[in-house]
């Protein structure tokens, strides 16, 4: 029960594996963690806030400029309450934005403002993952102390075989349990 009562911020990006975030939420809430989701703008193309809200039993955070609770600044309050931030699936784009220290949406601002452990779970086409730009960005983030649960081999959504599939839910959850 190591995850019990932990506040986990789950960042969800615009990749095909976004649907797997539902299974992660189910497992984390089974462990009695409190899960709050932040969706990037592009994540909406892959998964609905209604599904995530229903599974997590929490409001979904999407817009940096829409205050949900009274006077709180959303990205700062989320960053401060987080015991752990995980990003599933982490796209090539979000990894690049994190590596540059960008703060141009709610997820990047929250990650930049948080002192919690940041766990990145990449999922993308093999060539995108192997590209020097992505690999350099991962190196930079590792040097900042970000943790990675690396993708696995298998059949990608594009039909190719290779590295780039989101790590299994079991692997990701075990990683989180060992981290807290
Ligand atoms: C059908 C489809 C599937 C995609 N899957 C992925 C993916 O698995 N990984 C990835 O890095 N980008 C993927 N992309 C590209 C991202 O959606 C794009 O880079 C986007 O800007 C990511 O935005 P975000 O990181 O802010 O959510 C996909 C695009 C499409 C149209």
Q: Could you explain the architecture of this structure?
A:
The protein has 180 residues and is of the alpha/beta class. The protein has one domain (7-179): Rossmann fold (3-Layer(aba) Sandwich), CATH 3.40.50. Helix content is 39%, strand content 20%. The protein contains 8 helices and 7 strands; from the N terminus they run E-H-E-H-H-E-H-H-E-H-H-E-E-E-H. The strands form 2 sheets. A 5-stranded parallel sheet has the order 2-1-3-4-5, with helices on both faces. Strands 6-7 form a two-stranded antiparallel sheet. Helix 1 (21-30) runs parallel beside helix 2 and helix 3 crosses helix 5. The protein is globular. The N and C termini lie close together (11 Å). The mean pLDDT is 94. Bound molecules: flavin mononucleotide (FMN). Flavin mononucleotide (FMN) is lined by residues 13-17, 40, 42-43, 91-94, 123-124, 128.
Provide a short characterization of the protein structure.
The protein has 180 residues and is an alpha/beta fold.
Q: CATH class, please? A: Alpha Beta
Binned, the helix content reads 25-40%
Spatial gap, N to C terminus: 11 Å
- The domain tally reads 1
Rg calc: 15 Å
- The CATH superfamily is known as Flavin prenyltransferase-like
Q: What is the oligomer described by this structure?
A: single chain
Largest sheet: 5 strands, parallel
Unreliable stretches covering 5 or more consecutive residues: none
In CATH terms, what is the fold-level topology?
Answer: Rossmann fold
Ligands bound, unique = flavin mononucleotide
- Summed up, the helix count is 8
Alpha-beta classification: alpha/beta
The amount of beta strand, in percent, is: 15-25%
Secondary structure: number of strands? 7
Strand arrangement across the biggest beta sheet: 2-1-3-4-5
| Net shape | globular
Q: Can you give the mean pLDDT?
A: 94
CATH architecture type: 3-Layer(aba) Sandwich
